[in-house]
Each structure stands twice: as C-alpha cells, then as structure tokens.
C-alpha cells in the first residue's frame, strides 16, 4: 500500500509499504477514504517531536472496513467508519468513565500500531470499541459530508473539549487563543454551546480571520502579549474573560491565555504543550484554574455525529486544501508555512467539493 | 500598643508601636482578643518572603470593635467580630461574584494597612464589608469557642476552598497533601462534605497523625515521592485519587500531589506556592486539572459561622499552643521546628482551655 513516511525535519514522502493484516482477533483493517493532516503532525514535521525517522504519520482518518478479526462485533465488511485519533478498548475503568484517552490498553497510530492515518490501509486494534459507524447501516456518507465527518476524528472534539473544560456556558464571553483548525473548531463549539461573545486571538492571515468570523467569532485580534491584553480589556470593559481556551500549546500562547483570564476563571487547554511551564504563583492570587488535556475523542463521537448528520454542525469548513495522498508533501509544506489551515487527502480520488 | 514586629530571618519581637486611629470614614478599630500564627507567616519568619524588616506580622484575628468611622454601618462599639485574612470592600465586581480575595480595593494586613493581626489593635478598612459579627447581637462568644472562631479567619475556609476546588463530593476518595493546620482543616472539610475515604500525606510527627485521625483521616502516610505513590496505589486498588488537595505549596509537595492524581482528576491547590513550576505536558495526557488559589475567606464566613455556633464544626482543634502576645517569639520558634501545629496568642489573658 501507499503511505506517508516521515524521514526527518521537513522530509515526508509517499511510499509503498507493507500492507497490514489482522494480528489480533479484535483487529479490523480499514481502507482509508479520507485522511487529514493535523497541526500536531507539524511538530513531527518540524523535527520538534521525538519521532523516529521512518515512522508513518497521521492520526485522523475515515474509511471502509475491509477485514475483521474473529472477535470483532458490530462491524461488517464495507461499513463506513471514522476512527478517533487514539484507539481504546472500551472496557477499562477509564473508558467506562468516558476518558478513552487514558485507556489502559489504548494506543496511538504510528506508535503502538505501525500504520497511521495518512496511508491506504490501517490496522485498528480494539476495532469494535474504537471505530464508529458513520450511519446505522454502515452505508457511505454523502461525499459532501466527508470533510465534516473527518473533522470528528480529532479537531472538532478537541475544540469542544477545550470549550467544555474552560467551563463555557450560555451567554459567556470566551477568548479563544489560536486560529488553526482546533481554534476554529473551538469557535464552532463555543457558538454551539451558546457563548455570548467569542473573541479570537490569531495571526495576521486574512483567510483565517475570515474563517473565524464565518464560524462565529465576534472579534478577531492579530496582536500578542501586552497588546492582546489591552485589546481584550477594551473589548470587555476591563473585565477580561472567565473562559479562555488555549488551542496552540506553545509557551507564548499559554502565557497569553493566562494574561487574558479574569480572576476566578479557567483556561481550558487543548493545544499539545511544548515547553509550557506554569508558575503556580501566577495562578494563586487570582484563583485561576487550568483544565483540559488530550481529548477523549472517542467519547465525543456519539454526541457529535448526529449533529453533523443533521447539518447543524459543519466542522469540515476547517479544510482548505484538498488533494490525493500523493499530495502529502505539498500539503505539509503549505500547512507549515500557514498558507493553508488544514489538508484533506484521499488515497483515491480527491474530494474537490463540499 | 504592643505588636509583633518582624526584623529579619528568625527574628520577631513584641514591641510598643503607635496605636492606630481612624483614617477613613469606612474604618473601624478592632481590639484583638485572639490572634493566630499561620503557616504562611513562617515563610516570612524564615526570610523566604519579600517582607521588609520592621513590618508587622499576622493576619488571623478576632476581637471587639472599639471605634468606628462615620460611614461604618452594621457594627457597634463592643461588637465581637472575626476578620478574614484580607480586607475587601464588598462592592466591586469580584466581591459581588464571591471572590473577595480579588477585591479591587482590598488589601492585606501589614501591607496595605500597617497593622497586622498579631497586635493589640488593628485598623480595618471597609470595616462594614470585612468584619463579620460573631453573633447577631455582637455579644461575646463562649471562651471555649474562641479557637474554633479564630480558625475561620483563614485556615478553615482555606481547607474547605481546597476541598471544593478539588471537586470532592459525597463518597469520593480524597488525598490531602500536608498535615499542618490547613491540611487538618481540609480533612475536617472533606469529612464535612462526606468524602468516602480520606488519605493524608504528612510528616513523621505522631501528634499530627493523631490530630489527622481525630479529624477524620482514614489513612496517614509519612512517606514521600515514589513511596507515597506506591502506598496510595495500594490503598486505592491502583486507581490513585481523582481528588487531591495540596495544602503546602512547596515544589516537592505539589509534585507529590500531581503524582497521586488519577487521570481525569483535579488537584485543588491552596498552599501558598513557593517556586512551584508545573510542566503542562505532565497534565496534558491524563487530563489533569488544577484549581484553587488564595481563599476568599470572607465569602465562606456566612456558611461556616453557623456550623461553629452549632458545634458541628470544631476547627479550633488545630491549635496546639496557647499563650499571650508576649509569647510570640516562642510560638514562632515552636512552629518553625514543627514542635507545634498552630499557635493562638491573646493580648490579654491566655486561653488555657477549650
């Protein structure tokens, strides 16, 4: 099969690699119909993650089940499914608590499993618990829904996880730090929850501002540090925001998030942290909470799928690059340079419309 | 008047200093009947806080109103009152939200106000909002209730604040890190809320273990680091605890708290942090939240006072040294060496019984 392989900083290529097969009776093999490139893949791409050269890459995919192990239940050959960005067994104490991200027998694509999302085939452990059918009969979704459904693998649940962890409720003012795909999904989630006002801190890219405003941002600020604090103070009558969602994970963005939260408020954090150290004394006096972490995406799927089906939720708007799997190097290049927000790659024919 | 003065590391003395007077029409002068030494005073005592030599010290006191400014309402001369460890105006947006600790016109004893709790007299700004009468008619409390009432100035609300911020609910297993007065009050608070099991991490002082067990601790562990993790794993069938309350504020104790919290859980933090830096990556994977901060003690008083009046709540058990104000140097020496848990000092006659 063909798959994207990481070879070192700024080097990804599409290569022929061994096809996976069933290794455990709980496995299924999924033929990928659409895969996405995640902002967190860029940490690998840039050489900022501890990923060995030669590793596969990608953790957001949907496709069709083409083979099942003998113990797989609830899935038939041909079923269209989406995979969350981590597999989980559905049985351990964490899965039962709704925290599949801490599954005791779970794992990550391209780590505990060789295959990753950006390839033609993926072996999925604990397939019955991990994969979620896109419809009750497993039939193919309308092609125009594929981007929305693919966004459920990671970025949409992650954005919602940040918003929920920040404690956003109807009418609240919320600040969202980040204008990437997760930030955009946090905007969508905040709107879905009924936030009163959504203030977004982003970069100086008109396309991202336009996307943010279309998703529901009331204000978009392309400033940093003290300027950002001054701008948010002005927008909030000096009150800042009790609800801040950090969707980047860099030291600078987390620092900004902490500067924008009102005493008594909460920073919901979902940006994969790189070198973020928080001085607890900075939180203490103002009773600041921080809450969030790696999204248990699997647990959000039953809630989000019906909203996509009904058309209420359209997170596929975050995709701005559409290509085939063979376009992966170009997709990475464009995402790295922030020329595009998020890429959707199809091993078969590219999705050209939504 | 006589008051305790900090002169440098390990140097406190009791001296004659100027009497305070009304400076603002909202002020009241309180004649202190009982003052406490706080664990956080030890940071000053040991020279680990940025406190200028010559400063007064102490922030826990109760006493009688002996003078009021022209705009003070609701307080009469002679009323017995308790002061929370920070004064607040009761009017700003934070006070209205129940976060008096962030009052926009509030302040600390011995900082924004020269006087501090360990002295014969204190000028109290925003007296109407800050001071809470010990009974509806302002009459003197029974002498045996004085330790319980004095504990409401700081340690009891602070312990409860930690427990609430950790999210403790009926039946929960909770780990409390710290066996000082705040840790002991957190045990009392956890018991009050109906925690299922209370595990305390403390030192190797039999008197503190005895106090913790009397307050409701089900287990008391005098171990640190990996040994503490192993011991808590054993006590919790390997589950650790979703609710951890950090009552010390040192780097080591916060590290221990983070090691004991189960994925998806929360560390409630109320120990005044000194040099605590949290690597966000350590929280991310397990979805750990941290919540807490400086207790808005004033806001807890209406809830806690009736419980002391009825005898349901006896936080005065944390006092283990009783003396006059002149005994302050000895009280500090004993607390610093952990020979006593907490000291109660009376400018007049010492409280010798409870």
TrEMBL record, chains A, B:
Cited SUPFAM superfamilies: GroES-like, NAD(P)-binding Rossmann-fold domains
UniProt cross-references to Pfam families, sorted A to Z: ADH_N, ADH_zinc_N
Entry keywords, A to Z: Metal-binding, Zinc
Domain Enoyl reductase (ER), residue spans: 8-345
Listed GO MF terms: metal ion binding; oxidoreductase activity
Cofactor(s) recorded in Swiss-Prot or TrEMBL: Zn(2+)
PANTHER family referenced in this protein's UniProt entry, alphabetically: DEHYDROGENASE, ZINC-CONTAINING, PUTATIVE (AFU_ORTHOLOGUE AFUA_2G02810)-RELATED (PTHR42813:SF2), ZINC-TYPE ALCOHOL DEHYDROGENASE-LIKE (PTHR42813)
Listed name of the protein: Zinc-dependent alcohol dehydrogenase family protein
């Amino acid at each position: 099969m063909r798959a994207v392989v990481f070879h070192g900083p700024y080097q990804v290529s599409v290569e022929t690699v061994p096809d996976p097969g069933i290794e455990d009776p709980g496995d299924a093999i999924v033929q990928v119909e659409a895969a996405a490139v995640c902002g967190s893949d860029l940490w690998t791409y840039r050489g900022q993650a501890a990923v060995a050269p030669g590793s596969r890459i990608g953790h957001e995919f949907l496709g069709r089940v083409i083979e099942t192990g003998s113990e797989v239940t609830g899935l038939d050959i041909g079923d269209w499914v989406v995979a969350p960005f981590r597999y989980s067994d559905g049985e351990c104490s964490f899965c039962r608590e709704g925290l599949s991200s801490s599954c005791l027998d779970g794992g990550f694509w391209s780590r505990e499993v060789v295959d990753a999302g950006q390839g033609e085939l993926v072996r999925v452990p604990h397939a019955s618990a991990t994969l979620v059918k896109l419809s009750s009969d497993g039939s193919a979704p309308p092609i125009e829904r594929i981007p929305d459904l693919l966004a459920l693998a990671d970025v949409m649940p992650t954005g919602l996880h940040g918003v929920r962890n920040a404690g956003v409720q109807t009418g609240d003012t919320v600040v969202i730090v980040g204008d990437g795909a997760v930030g955009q999904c946090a905007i969508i989630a905040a709107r879905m929850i009924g936030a009163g006002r959504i203030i977004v801190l982003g970069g100086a890219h008109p396309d991202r501002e336009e996307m943010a405003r279309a998703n529901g941002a009331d204000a978009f600020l392309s400033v940093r540090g003290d300027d950002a604090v001054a701008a948010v103070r002005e927008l909030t009558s000096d009150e800042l925001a009790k609800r801040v969602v950090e969707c980047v994970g860099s030291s600078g963005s987390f620092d900004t998030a902490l500067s924008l939260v009102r005493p008594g408020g909460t920073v919901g954090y979902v940006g994969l942290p790189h070198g973020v150290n928080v001085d607890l004394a900075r939180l203490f006096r103002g009773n600041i909470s921080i809450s969030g972490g790696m999204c248990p995406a699997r647990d959000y799927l039953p809630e989000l799928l019906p909203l996509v089906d009904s058309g209420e939720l359209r997170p596929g708007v975050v995709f701005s690059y559409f290509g085939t799997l063979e376009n992966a190097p170009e997709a990475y290049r464009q995402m790295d340079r922030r020329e595009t927000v998020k890429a959707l790659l199809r091993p078969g024919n590219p999705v050209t419309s939504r």
